[in-house]
Amino acid sequence: MQKSIAVADGGQARPAPRPNLAGRKIAGRALIAIASLGGLVVLLVQILHTTGTIRAGFANWRPILYAYLVWSIALGIGQVMIHGERGQRALFLLPAVLFTVAVVIFPTLFGFYIAALDWNLSSLEGPHFNGLDNLVALFNDAYYWNALGNMVFYTLAVLAEYAIAFALALLLNADIRGRKFFRVVFLLPLMLSPVAVSWMIGKSLMEYRFGPAATLARALGWDNPAFFAHPWIARISIDAMDAWVSIPFIMIILLAGLQAMPKEVLEAAKVDGANGWQSFWHVTFPIMLPVSVTVLIIRIIFKLKLADIVINVTAGGPGGATDTVSSFIYRVYRDRSNVGYGTGLAIFYLLLIVVLLSVLLRLTSRWMQKVA
Amino acid sequence: MMSTLTPASATARRTRSGLPAKRIAGRVLIYAALLAWAFICLFPIYWTVSTSFKSAVDVTQGHLIPWLDFQPDWKGWRSIGLSPDTILRTSNPRDEFLSRFENSVITSVGASLLALVLGSLAAYGLSRFRYKFAWMRNDDMLFFFMSQLILPPVVLALPFLVLYKALALLDTRFGLILLYTLTVLPIVIWIMRDQFNSIPIELDEAAFVDGLSVWGAFLRIILPLAVPGMAAAFILSLVLCWNEYFFAALLTSTDAKTLPVMVASQTGSQGINWWSMAALSSAAIAPLVLVGIFLERYIVSGLTTGAGK
Question: Which residue of A171, A193, A252 is in closest CB contact with B303?
């Protein structure tokens, strides 16, 4: 926040330059050059200090962070001085770009590096390079592939969540009494933390001995209501909890789309003699298609990160039946301290997701063009 | 089960002039579905809050209705030092709870604000101007921001652990704020860009004619109109940050531990007391439940402006 405010002030203080344009440009370039140089010097000093070449240096790398901040501000001010109006426009985008680059690019690249290491925190040897060994081990890791298989199920379950959420959005958009009440109530699960939900539902409501859900199941004739003992039932139970938390999100976006929909279209369909099902299928659903695709993709992305509930309720059990990739890697980190291998698994997963999502995006955009 | 109700509700809405019997049946179905789902949403919350007032016997016998079934008692709240009789005395569990609570508030509000500032600026830029940086144009930049959403926490977890150790940011609130900002920034940009796209560009042009600079037009004219979207983006960010568990579990240990980590660590311990666990869960979800109840309309109205585009 500091960064962007400082940058914003820089932009405001300087009106579009007119007279000594050339001088201003040179000053701007000089400012950026000095800042870059200063930043590099700080970086170099710290690198040399860490490698033990020189004595002088800082206790930790924190000053690099400050140097980056100063450099960013200088870059922003310099942009305005060099490009004037265009620089002021660039200032809108610059803070977010600089922030994201700083926080994402380096850690991700670093992740690729760690992924190629044989690094176990509990072994005394410390990290050493082992190339593609982690990748080979990964292909032979049945538990990892099992977790990936579970992800297919969890991802497909998004479609069911979407159907329920659409039905709820239609209900809320219908001509009903107490709409405000129902809207608030339907939204509430979204507000709850998955960790709290793990306990509230997974560990107490669905508790085998005296959880109300188990009592209800017994009353309905299920003698042995163990929600987390049989693989498929456990998987569905986990997904039900995740769905409970996230259906409101899909619902609220769809509801917003429904409310933005022009009323005349439905009126016209009614005049044409369409019944409820026809006007939903031929009018509402196609109009809602872009919103639906957006919310489905966002939901799938979030689903692919599912971990909290699994970690806290079943820890992947029984026998890995409920494991997600994230919860599996979490255990590789925590129980086996095998950080090199764990990061290798994570990076492989990331690449898999990127490929899958780009195929999905390509397919949907082509399909949307055909439909529209 | 719910999806089969869709046609029924749609029919009920549109055949107002149809047979009264059919219409009544439709109405009944709609309200039955609404009440059923309201029950599904509310029961777990009710169960948790009521359990925090139960003693062991009431839990095991599955008593549900206070005063009728069981005699409510401050047991659960006493165990975390928040019951009326313990609130004035010193209590270690309460001190711990309050410090986690404070961490959660500071990190989630801080990250949401930071994301809102960065995201609104970027979204306005992407919505109004055409950028070109190397091969990247506006759509590429938007994709760049949105693609951050894809990164699974497991990919970033270890690099951040090592990085934060070097930067002395491990177990600090500031470190968590930076990380949370990263995770919610795409959502903010997504909502705010829709919001700015729905504000006519003629307003900007009129402001330029009046002699305002680009930033003047943004700050004085456009931003006040974008408040609904900002409210929605802020609340959604707040929800995501408040509930985040994975990074907090890995990157904090004593000082900056947040509420979800505390709740999770209590769940894992053996022989947990249902009532104290329920009290802790209730206290942890209470702030956001209140946010949901009182600020719900801002979420919907903020999202509605952009969703039609």
Answer: A252
Range of the domain at B260: 92-307
Chain B contact set for A59 (CB, 8 A): 168
Whole-number Å distance between alpha carbons of B178 and B175: 5
* DSSP-assigned letter for residue A280: I
CB contact under 8 Å between A333 and B51, yes or no, is no
Tens of each residue's pLDDT in chain A, 372 residues: 333 333 333 344 444 445 577 888 888 888 888 888 888 888 888 788 777 777 777 777 888 888 888 888 888 888 888 888 888 888 898 899 999 988 888 888 888 888 877 777 777 666 777 777 777 777 888 888 999 999 999 999 999 999 999 999 999 988 888 888 999 999 999 999 888 888 888 888 888 777 888 888 888 888 788 888 888 889 999 999 999 999 999 999 899 888 888 888 878 887 887 777 888 888 888 888 888 988 998 899 999 999 889 988 888 778 888 889 999 988 888 887 788 888 888 889 999 999 998 898 888 888 888 876
pTM: 0.85
CATH of the domain at B141: 1.10.3720.10
Report the DSSP beta bridge partners of residue A129.
A117
The ipTM, to two decimals, is 0.84
Whether A87 contacts A79, CB under 8 Å: yes
| CB contact (8 A) between residue A298 and residue B189 | no
In a domain, B282, yes or no: yes
Q: Of B30, B155, B303, which is closest to A350 when you measure between CB atoms?
A: B155
At residue A234, what is the residue type? A
Whether residues B143 and B230 fall in one domain: yes
Query: In the CATH scheme, what is the homologous superfamily, with its name and number, of domain A136-371?
Result: MetI-like (1.10.3720.10)
Number of domains forming the structure of chain B: 2
Contact A107 B160 (CB under 8 A): yes
Cα–Cα distance list, A155 to A159, A307, A310 (Å): 8, 13, 15
* CA atoms of B245 and A114, how far apart (whole Å): 23
Q: Where are chain A's structural domains?
A: 2-103, 136-371
